[in-house]
């Protein structure tokens, strides 16, 4: 960077600067240490060079003649060992302090690390009192403890690994959709519809209070989105394959390990899709492809989880990837649950909504691999689900993907594309005026279509074996908690 800056200065502005000034700039640039992200320092390309790193101290060890630091800058799990003469020691060099170190990058004589930095200068940029700092050197703090410090937990190995994995998983979903011909749509965060009809809406209004009689800001009640599905259905009518990946909000008054008031949802919609089979194939391919990409691109970070945070979980992930996800109908699921000797808190009868305990039982029944449950009772599903022609049962062409440790990961359905059937359903629900625009989609070039939504945090829980959803999102929001 410095080289190119000097070059462009000399090319663009020769007339403004003297030749000797430009030579001095170039000399400085040639001598200036190379600024490296720590993950780059581990490639042998920069051995012997003068480099500068910036990061936070993960450990300090003092000997008579030397001090040894481990410095991490978040670019990877690895910390770089810094070796310095005792004269560079500084009382402020403590666990957690922020430092800038300049020195020569050398091959390390120790087996544990390939390179180390022989420090010429150490500058403590930000002090950190080790007594007050909530994390202690060499202590492995569990996720529950870390949760108390949403503003500091990214400084620990476990949580920084988690966030790098989350970032890579985000990229993996985008790659999957790009590779399969989907167009990304930014669906709105503020909306006037309640797609799921469950009434778990956060209403949006400006904060200025006082005028009790003022009108709605948008002239109609507006809410934070619970799903981008209806907007995706609009777009699938033009692009055929579309997806969205963004924050979603549900005012569920739940403190469970699987619910958040704000979570990220990956949603896809496919036009010209006629069967649930075609939909489950996309869901299974997506799950496997994204999981494989995360495992391949985050080897060290995932390893940290599977070894130390959730030991033994890797075998479960490998089993999921190897299996062909079984498919069972809701009716079969109810039969299996009915035959079970397990003491469920909620009784199971045909027509009941499946609870987490039931979902977990079904997953266990299938050998702890993901399982699709299809054809739910029609009355359990929102107005958009396509009715199956199967009296007297009256089911909908809807599917849930249940996964080990979590339960429901994805929910999807074929959408009712028949104008007459949809109109009748909306009239029954008294919603025909609200959704007149939705009926237009069926009036003008309607095609059979379907889609699904995947809870991104639940996906991370499933791949990493993390029990509590609050531990896989940077800043969790749930009832009675909106810290920071
Ligand atoms: N896009 C989807 O199919 C997700 C579905 N609307 C849900 O919220 O469960």
From TrEMBL:
The keyword Ligase applies. Signal peptide: none annotated. It is an enzyme of class 6 (ligase). GO terms for cellular component: mitochondrion. Gene3D superfamilies: Bira Bifunctional Protein, Domain 2, Nucleic acid-binding proteins. Residues 163-474 form the Aminoacyl-transfer RNA synthetases class-II family profile domain. Its EC number is 6.1.1.22. One of its GO terms (molecular function) is ATP binding. Keywords: Aminoacyl-tRNA synthetase, ATP-binding, Ligase, Nucleotide-binding, Protein biosynthesis. It holds the Pfam family tRNA-synt_2. The keyword Phosphoprotein does not apply. Transmembrane segments: none annotated. GO terms for biological process: asparaginyl-tRNA aminoacylation. NCBIfam families: asnS, PRK03932.1. Belongs to the class-II aminoacyl-tRNA synthetase family. HAMAP family: Asn_tRNA_synth. This is asparagine--tRNA ligase.
